[in-house]
Amino acid sequence: MTVYVDDFRAPYGRMRMCHLLADTDQELHAMVDTIGVDRRHHQNGMSGSHYDIASSKRLLAIAAGAVPITVRQAAMMAKNRRLTGTLGPPDPYYGPDYDPSIPREEASHVRR
Question: What digits encode the pLDDT tens for the residues 7-37?
Fold first, then answer.
């Protein structure tokens, strides 16, 4: 199992926020304990179990073992969790080199 942190930069007051997600709440809570985020910020709504964390905590999460992903990958993984019950792996098509004008079959950054 893995914890993921996306590259979203949503404004919240003077901060920028991103998302921390994992297949299990146990992993998710262990990570926020490690990086110093209070568990009262846990969210479990339509987008599934996750934390909105300050971007300043993103690097701490990565240093603690979280896998960096794009916000598009996070969105697709959340959708997968709603449909199947598990996040599944991040889709490389929606990675940092994502270009919506290039069809998946022509994208050079996607392994075949």
Answer: 999 999 999 999 999 989 999 999 999 999 9
What DSSP character marks residue 86? S
| Cβ-count burial 58-86 (b if 16+ within 10 Å, e if not) | bebbeebebebbbebbbbbbbebbeeeee
Strand partners, 16: 11
CB-CB contact of 28 with 50 (8 Å): yes
Nearest to 5 by CA among 83, 90, 92, 111: 90
Contact 4, 20 (CB under 8 A): yes
Predicted structure pTM score: 0.88
DSSP string, 9-67: -EEETTEEEEEEEESSHHHHHHHHHHHT--GGGEEEETTEEEEEEEHHHHHHHHHTTPE
Which element (helix H / strand E) includes 77?
helix 71-84
